């Protein structure tokens, strides 16, 4: 007769891969996922999902999942029970604090983790350890968006609900490849273009959307600020600016007008390589549109002057009066990871408390102290690159890395590894024995997004529920449970017994989230912040009355073009740009352990056919790529998607060591690495 299997269970949750935030129905039976279905009533995905969210769940039952804590004994990581692992971590933290002070302990929180987990981690660091040394991987992707959008408009998030993008009559998509990296957004944008919207794509690569663009601006990597200043010059020169809006709601026009004298199309063309007619045509399309939209990605932020890029791109929307007016779809970043917006919203940042309140602001500290009952440290903590530098200098005693494979994803891998090796106690919370976990002293087995309760915030500021479809395997625990247990081992009580209680408490520390609760989300599906009280529906489109800056005005920025950290030369004649491919996700720790591996089995490096011919490289051949920082060997993919003189590759496979190539150059404002411009050379063949 066989064994009768249990009933099918359907769990509504939010995708744990990219920042689009697709609502998914996960079907499980007998503790196994049988199918993942995109939710037809999902507010962002409306019945769609991509190859990652829909099919990449096989990693859950991978035999490589970590199921017990591991403790380093000599050169080996050996299984131990939770009390022994937590005691070891707690002893190390206590000793570091006693001998050298709380600022010798640091934590890298996780964009993969829920809001509630991020809230708890930053609260642990601030109230139990007594330091602001907590950061998250938005440092490496959209920290320039946070700084740039806050300076221009007042809040650290996109200016509109994505629904508004489908009312735009002209889309300006900059430094983003949504067809591969945010596929559901890419599909919705493409559908909108096929319905008649005009499209300008600004990207050095011939990305998927560029096939459908009216104008494709292929500016040289690292020249965004010149490009955006050039577009602004044409807007003003041709009378396409909204002078009434500028008079009433913006500031900085005189300074910007003076600066733009230096950015006529001819000079901008020399800097960027964009032909003058294309530049002018793009400016006219955007400038003459009734409802223009700006959507951008990491091609704007991951630069030495990434924040300047966000500011000068924002200038275009301000000049057109296309932000905060109900007309147009202002300036909207496509956030990379599932909860990178939320990790920052929750205050997992060294200078900002939950809700982006500065740690240097006595009133903000006092509000948090009233809720937490202990003093909040006053001085900003270390950013991620500063943590690594401090470790290499012997100034960091404990580094706690939650759900990030920094050895695979952070730039200049050799320096990251040197930091981990120099730090006396490295604690890593992970699903798998990642490259980073291999360097850890303690490895704590964590739960995945399909095994957790909480919320994520997607790219257009929507809180959505995350619900467990399965239990974690073996002794693996949620990050929420691990932080609680570590606090208890140190004799502290973080409060917040449940994720729902943590979000409720966060709303008291950060009133901007005060109206958002698990209960409301269970009833209403999604709520965009700001949402200060339970009687309000959340805010999709921002700034309709006033901007959130101190003076209530949008701020134009007069910023000159400055060259990138590295430029091609005789020794390193190519520019390497890194990014993502459609089947995999970031370090690939999950997607490589699924059927998606068959779709894309290895990292490849894109080489333009002209460069390939000159170097006698054929499709599939191994090539060696060298920068001033390191060397990697990959197989070539010959394609004119990449311009002559440029190379492109992803970093989904640790074995390819792509980030051994990337440099330590970083945004001068936020320390976001310049992943988009590394000078390299190429030679056929692998290592000798
Ligand atoms: Fe998940 Fe992003 Fe794909 Fe949606 S588009 S299913 S959020 S990876």
TrEMBL record:
Catalytic activity, EC: 1.17.1.9
Membrane-crossing ranges are none
The UniProt GO MF terms for this protein read: formate dehydrogenase (NAD+) activity
Annotated ranges, domain 4Fe-4S Mo/W bis-MGD-type: 8-64
The kind of enzyme this is, by top-level EC class, is oxidoreductase
Give the superkingdom in one word.
Bacteria
Q: What is this protein called?
A: Formate dehydrogenase subunit alpha
